[in-house]
Structure formats: structure tokens, C-alpha cells
Amino acid sequence: MIESVAVVHDMVSRMEPVDGLEAEHRALVLGWLTGTDDVFRRVPPAEPPQHLVSYVVPVAADGRVLLVDHVKAGLWLPPGGHVEPGENPVLTARRELAEELGLDGATLRETPVLLTVTGTVGTVQRHTDVSLWFVLPCTGDEDLNPDAGEFHAVRWWSRAELAAGPSRLDPHFFRFLAALQRLSPGPRLRGGPAVADRREDLVEPRQDLG
């Protein structure tokens, strides 16, 4: 096992599953990491057909979470992206925050709170993402600079807003929220009005100039 894969194996082995599904995913992923070093995406979009992803969820002090309306996936997802060959997933999370939102990842919690194995949807070639979910504690007032090439929109969501539109979220997102509630001390999601009443939380993506 090469060093970069061993780092991920150690990270996953130290995670405490939030439920039975995560325990199943954890066992599958540990076996996968033990059996191959070909775990990083080498050629977009799907080579190898199963590869590592880092999600990072900004969580405001009042419990709201930041999601992006992803162009290719057609879903509201956390910021994040594929782990580059040899890259530590923590560094992936920080890099994606800077590239996608212009956010500093200095306060990132370096232990992921959830592990998921998911077949992709949307406009890209189907493949399987093995995703490590990280948390970025925020104030909720950060100056964001979202990438219009990646996202239709970016916005903060309350628990009530998330519950009102579950079909457009990652299928594991509510499991992430359950894992988030285990953090002690940690952020707690509050309720809120419907999405249509919270337009001030929407941040327009920047235009791609390159």
C-alpha cells in the first residue's frame, strides 16, 4: 500500500460509523483501499470507475449549512471535488474551498464526520464516488466568490428549508446532518422559513473569465 493510500486507510479506520449503512460502507472501503492503490481519479470523468472525493460542508454559527447548485450533477451539494493522485483528502477539501468559493479552510475539522459510497447522477459518465465529508465551522457572514462554471447558485440552508426539498440533495445528506449532531461541542441546525422567503441567503456565482 503506497503512503498516500495508507493515509486514507488510517483516516477511514478511525471513523466511528453513524449508522449501519456507514458501517457497511466503511468495511467495503477499507477492503477496497487494502486491495488497490488505484483509488484517485486519473482521467475525468470516470477512470478509475471508483475513486475518492472530499466533500466539505460550511456550517454557520447558527447552524445553517452552505450548499451549491451543481451544474453537472443537477443537485444541491456540498462544495468539494475529486482527490488528486497522492493528495491528502484534507488538503483536497481546503483546495476546493478556495477554488470554488474563495474560502479559507484554516478552521476545517480534519477528521471527516461521514463516509459514503454513491453512484453518480447527472450529465457525466456514471461512476462511484467514495466520499469523505468534512465540516468547516463558519460565521455565516463570509464573503463568498462562487464559480459560475461549476454552480448555478450558492446559498445557506436551514433545517426547514432542507426538509422541504430533499429530492434535490445528495441522497446521504440527511445522514450527514445526523452525524453533524453527534459533534460535541458542535453546530446545531435551526429551523427557518421556506426557501422562497430566504433570497438574501443566495449568492450569485462569479463568471468564468478563463
Describe the structure.
The protein has a single domain (3-203), classed as Nucleoside Triphosphate Pyrophosphohydrolase (Alpha-Beta Complex), CATH 3.90.79. The termini are far apart. The radius of gyration is 16 Å and the shape is globular. A hairpin with a 5-residue loop joins strand 2 and strand 3. Helices cover 26% and strands 24% of the residues. With 210 residues, it is of the alpha+beta class. The relative contact order is 0.19.
Q: Write down the CATH class.
A: Alpha Beta
Span from first to last CA? 38 Å
Order of helices and strands: HHEEEEHEEEHHE
The percent range for helix content is 25-40%
| CATH architectural category | Alpha-Beta Complex
Low-pLDDT runs: 185-210
Number of domains: 1
> What is the strand tally?
8
Taking the sheet with the most strands, its summary is: 4 strands, mixed
**Biggest sheet: strand arrangement:** 4-1-6-5
Mean pLDDT across all amino acids: 83
Query: And the CATH topology?
Result: Nucleoside Triphosphate Pyrophosphohydrolase
What is the H level of CATH, i.e. the homologous superfamily? Nucleoside Triphosphate Pyrophosphohydrolase
What is the CA-based Rg, rounded? 16 Å
Q: How many H/I helical runs?
A: 5
* Shape estimate: globular
Return the structural class.
Answer: alpha+beta
Region (Disordered): 188-210
Domain Nudix hydrolase: 49-184
Biased composition (Basic and acidic residues): 196-210
Keywords: Hydrolase
